[in-house]
Design a protein that fits this description.
It is a single chain. The chain is mostly helical and 98 residues long. Helices cover 61% and strands 0% of the residues. The protein contains four helices and no strands. α1 packs across α2. It is elongated and about 80 Å long. Bound molecules: zinc ion. The site of zinc ion has 8 residues, from α1.
Length: 98
């Protein structure tokens, strides 16, 4: 059997086809979304070319870690914000009104 024209790895599906089953599915997705959109998605998810987006994610993770550390330090010094009082339920309101 001949190799798929796209992935050059798997065997082509059927005698008249050019692509393997997986690449046929990829072709259907490209038909649906367009090659530019699919390429953009693949570059963002597989290659992560967009350094800006990666930097934003790294900054967010760093910030979250710093906030976690700050909360731990505040707890150690007794500076942690007091949790809000629990909400009063209807049954509690009845008791206080009587
Ligand atoms: Zn293929």
């Amino acid at each position: 059997m001949f190799e798929c024209y796209l992935c050059l790895n798997k065997k082509r599906a059927g005698y008249g086809g050019y692509y393997c089953d997986a690449c046929n599915k990829i072709g259907k997705i490209i038909e649906c979304y367009g090659s530019d959109e699919v390429l953009d998605i693949l570059e963002q998810t597989c290659l992560r070319k967009d350094k800006k987006l990666r930097d934003i994610k790294i900054e967010k993770v760093k910030k979250d870690k710093e906030e976690d550390k700050k909360v731990d330090i505040d707890k150690a010094h007794g500076l942690a914000p007091t949790p809000p009082p629990p909400p009063t339920t209807r049954s509690q309101k009845k008791k206080t009104s009587n």
